[in-house]
Write a structure and sequence with these properties.
- It is built from ten helices and nine strands.
- It is α/β, with parallel strands linked by helices.
- It has one domain: Alpha/Beta hydrolase fold, catalytic domain (Rossmann fold), CATH 3.40.50.1820.
- It has a six-stranded parallel β-sheet, sandwiched between helices. Strands 5-6-7 form a three-stranded antiparallel β-sheet.
- Helix 1 packs across helix 10 and helix 2 crosses helix 3.
- The longest helix has 14 residues.
- The two termini are 15 Å apart.
Length: 239
Amino acid sequence: MPAINAPVIVLVHGAFADSASWAPVTRLLLDAGYDVRVPPVPNRSLSGDAAYIRRFAEQIDGPVLLAGHSYGGAVITVAGVADNVAGLVYVSGYALAEGESLGQLQGGFPDSDLAANLVYEPYTLPDGTDGTDVSVKIDAFPEIFAAGVPLATAQVLAVSQRPLSAIAFGEPASVAAWKTKPAWGIVSSADRTINPDVERYGYERAGLRAVTEIDAPHLVMHARPAEVARVITDAVAAL
């Protein structure tokens, strides 16, 4: 059982996913007695998404551990400067530097299989102009995003994915919380959505306390939930 003063665990989903992407890990953490929250991320812009998650964390009474998957890693990098955030866990995620965008970090490494399997569709911005939503081709989703996950589950996730606004790819991180907060990381070594070297490079640069390599696809929370939960609970114990 967690300590009485253990931080609340806030699980932050990424692009092409929603809170259900964390479901297997959420179940394990709840069963072990941890206090968990899994908020929806708008996936509209890095600054807006980070502001939303920061405010969400700040409304929790007590310390918080933020765990971010994929694009959620970029979100917690910015949101994690909230005073009550005690630590960060990156799960197959982007550990951006201050002033760096997703596109810039990815641009230093060979493309993953994701780039050729994206769909771009217009959506209406609040001012009436068009924005662009990015999602994964439904037929490619099980193999590219959720390889190793049971096909029946991957197909459901494919048709319920939450797109990411193209704006988020080019928006620089305004801060980097890992500079002042302890952080841990998981690399999905069989990742076909993000080049695993992007994850390794970001984590090494950030000087994470510990990095765990898991032979798993990008959606590691479904493929290897017990190992992901263990990294998170180890971080809680360290805090």
